[in-house]
Design a protein that fits this description.
The chain has twelve helices and two strands; from the N terminus they run ααβαααβααααααα. It is globular, with a radius of gyration of 23 Å. It is mostly helical.
C-alpha cells in the first residue's frame, strides 16, 4: 500500500502558527519565546498514528472469538479460581482477560493483517463529532498499537512454548495479587507462587540446558501489560459485538453454567 505522509503539511502549519504567535507578541510588546521545545519536530509520526482495521475481519474475528471462549473456559476450569469470592473472580477477569487472550493468539499462532481505515466524509465527521460529545471516545486501533501486539506475539513464537508452559504462564497471569480491589490477596499470592514453581519445574524437565528460560518467559509476559484492552476490543471484537460492552459479555460467560 502507498501512504502519503502529512507531516510536512502539519509542520508548515505549525511553523505558520509559530510565526503568527511571534509577530503577535511583537506587536503587543511581549518578548519572543526562547524555548527549544517550541520548535517544530521534523520527525514523521503519521505512519504510526494511522488508524487501521483488520483486512479480513470475518475470518479473523471468528478465530479471535473462539480463542476468547477458550480463555474464559480455562479460567472457569481452575478449581482454585472457583474457590475465590465472586467479586475477586470479577476483578481478576477484568485485569487479566487481555493478556490471557494474547497468550491464546500466540499459542494458536494466529496471524493477521491490517489495512488503513478510510477517511470519513465531511458529513460523517460532523455526525461523529456530535456523537463523541455525548459518548465516551473509544480507542481506535493504530498501526503503532498493532505492531506492538505483533512484536509481543513474535516473542512467544520465538520461545516456542509447550502447552504446559502456556498453561502455567497463564496461571501466573491470572493469579495476580497486586490487582487493586481484591479481598483474598494472600490466597491469590500463594496461587501465583504455586504457578511459578510449577512453571519452573516444567522448564527444568523440558529445557534443562536453558537456565535463563524462566526469566525470558517472565520478560515476555511483562510485554503483555503494554497491550491495552481497548486495542484488542476494537480490533478483534468491535466488528461483531457492535455497541455491546465486551466486559459484560465476558462476565456473563464466566458466571454462566
Amino acid at each position: 500500500m502507498d501512504y502519503k505522509c502529512q507531516c510536512s503539511d502539519s509542520a508548515n502549519a505549525r511553523q505558520n502558527a509559530i510565526l503568527f504567535n511571534i509577530l503577535s507578541r511583537a506587536e503587543n510588546g511581549a518578548p519572543p519565546r526562547n524555548n527549544l521545545n517550541y520548535l517544530p519536530s521534523n520527525r514523521c509520526h503519521c505512519e504510526m498514528r494511522r488508524s487501521v482495521r483488520l483486512k479480513t475481519p470475518a475470518a479473523t474475528c471468528q478465530v479471535a472469538s473462539s480463542i476468547l471462549v477458550k480463555t474464559i473456559h480455562f479460567m472457569k476450569s481452575l478449581p482454585a479460581f472457583q474457590q475465590l469470592p465472586p467479586k475477586d473472580q470479577l476483578v481478576l477477569l477484568q485485569s487479566c482477560w487481555t493478556p490471557l487472550f494474547i497468550l491464546g493468539l500466540a499459542q494458536e499462532r494466529v496471524s493477521f493483517e491490517v489495512e488503513d481505515v478510510p477517511a470519513p466524509s465531511m458529513l460523517k465527521r460532523i455526525l461523529m463529532n456530535r456523537q463523541d460529545a455525548e459518548e465516551p471516545e473509544q480507542e481506535e486501533p493504530t498501526l503503532a498499537g498493532v505492531q506492538k501486539l505483533k512484536s509481543c506475539l513474535k516473542k512467544f513464537w520465538i520461545l516456542d512454548l509447550s502447552p504446559k508452559e502456556y498453561a502455567y504462564l497463564k496461571g501466573t497471569v491470572i493469579f495476580n495479587p497486586d490487582v487493586p480491589g481484591l479481598r483474598a490477596t494472600l490466597f491469590i499470592e500463594g496461587l501465583q507462587q504455586e504457578a511459578q514453581r510449577a512453571l519452573q519445574e516444567v522448564l527444568v524437565l523440558l529445557h534443562p540446558e536453558d537456565r535463563g528460560r524462566f526469566a525470558s518467559l517472565l520478560l515476555a509476559g511483562s510485554l503483555l501489560k503494554t497491550i491495552t484492552p481497548g486495542l484488542v476490543t476494537e480490533l478483534f471484537f468491535r466488528p461483531i459485538i457492535s455497541e455491546a460492552h465486551l466486559l459484560d459479555l465476558l462476565v456473563d460467560m464466566l458466571f454462566s453454567r
